[in-house]
């Protein structure tokens, strides 16, 4: 269709007061310097005039020039560009969760449109998976063997259907003869599932039924601290003398604590190996890996001399570091 080009001309004195003058000639040139339109003796009202002219449905593309000739023969020019109209590119983004629970009553979604054009419609389709699993149980760092008479240490993780940890929930752990109810039907007749977890442990073999076991710590060890590691043991009374030495004096069954110094040389993983040799020649041993936080060999501290102060008050900044830092 035909498009109108609108022009506004403002004329001011040096002190920025409106100049109510008459402009002898105003004209428009196309990119080929052809004069398309012109206006003669245009009178300004309060230093302002507004003009317009139509462009054809297929105008010449390029730079057009607007020329204003004043009474003093001074010329003011302004250029504008005419180009082919192209529908703007745009897109619609729909963000939804990949999965929701069958028990969910609502979920959050966002819709974002970019550079939407006039009269243009676009449809975006996203899919959401609905899971009937409302809880999932798994073993974390489970040990592959058990030793008769020594506690079996297990770490378990309980999450919902979207893998969000579930706090303050009770779980039941049973042996081979236990019964676990996996399915549960809710009031609205929608079948939901509680995913169970299983872990197979084999009996650790010892000819004399003697065992050592280092108790795990469910945390990352802090650098610069001394951690207390508990060790459980069972020794066959017939295979040992009155006492055995693990760097400690022990009885045939019980537990004791080891002090493990955590420093830069033990990071990021340290392995504790504990063993003893029975008079029969049997080696009773156990090892365990512990995760250690990142450590720095040189320690530094930075602090102010005063805990608080007034604006403009003098204070001191202290810096302390290890020798050789």
TrEMBL record:
Segment forming the signal sequence: none
Keyword Cell membrane found: no
Family (UniProt): Belongs to the protease inhibitor I39 (alpha-2-macroglobulin) family.
Gene that encodes it: A2M
Descriptive protein name: Alpha-2-macroglobulin
Record has Oxidoreductase as a keyword: no
Ranges of residues in domain Alpha-2-macroglobulin bait region: 212-324
GO MF annotation, one: serine-type endopeptidase inhibitor activity
Alphabetized UniProt keyword annotations: Glycoprotein, Protease inhibitor, Serine protease inhibitor, Signal, Thioester bond
Lineage, highest ranks first: Eukaryota, Metazoa, Chordata, Craniata, Vertebrata
Domain of life according to the entry: Eukaryota
């Amino acid at each position: 269709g035909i498009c109108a080009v609108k022009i506004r001309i403002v004329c001011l004195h040096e002190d920025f007061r409106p100049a109510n003058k008459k402009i002898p000639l105003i004209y428009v040139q196309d990119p080929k310097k052809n004069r398309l339109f012109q206006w003669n003796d245009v009178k300004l009202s309060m230093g302002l005039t507004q003009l317009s002219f139509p462009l054809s449905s297929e105008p010449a593309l390029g730079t057009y020039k607007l020329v204003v000739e004043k009474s003093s023969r001074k010329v003011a020019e302004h250029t504008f560009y005419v180009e082919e109209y192209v529908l703007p590119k745009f897109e619609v983004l729909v963000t939804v969760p990949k999965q929701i629970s069958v028990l969910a009553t609502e979920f959050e979604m966002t819709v974002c449109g970019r550079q939407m054009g006039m009269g243009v419609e676009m449809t975006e389709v996203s899919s959401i998976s609905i899971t009937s699993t409302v809880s999932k149980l798994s073993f974390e760092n489970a040990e592959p063997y058990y030793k008769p008479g020594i506690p079996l240490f297990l770490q378990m993780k309980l999450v919902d259907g979207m893998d969000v940890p579930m706090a303050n929930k009770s779980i039941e752990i049973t042996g081979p003869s236990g019964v676990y109810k996996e399915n549960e039907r809710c009031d609205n007749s929608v079948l939901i599932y509680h995913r169970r977890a299983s872990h197979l442990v084999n009996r650790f073999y010892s000819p004399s039924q003697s065992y050592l076991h280092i108790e795990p710590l469910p945390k990352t060890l802090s650098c610069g601290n001394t951690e207390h590691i508990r060790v459980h043991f069972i020794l066959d009374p017939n295979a040992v003398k009155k006492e055995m030495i693990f760097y400690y004096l022990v009885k045939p069954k019980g537990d004791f604590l080891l002090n493990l110094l955590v420093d830069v040389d033990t990071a990021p993983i340290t392995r504790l190996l504990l063993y003893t040799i029975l008079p029969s020649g049997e080696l009773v041993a156990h090892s365990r890996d512990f995760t250690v936080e990142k450590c720095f060999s040189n320690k530094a501290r930075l602090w102010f001399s005063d805990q608080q102060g007034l604006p403009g008050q003098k204070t001191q900044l202290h810096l302390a570091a290890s020798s050789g830092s």
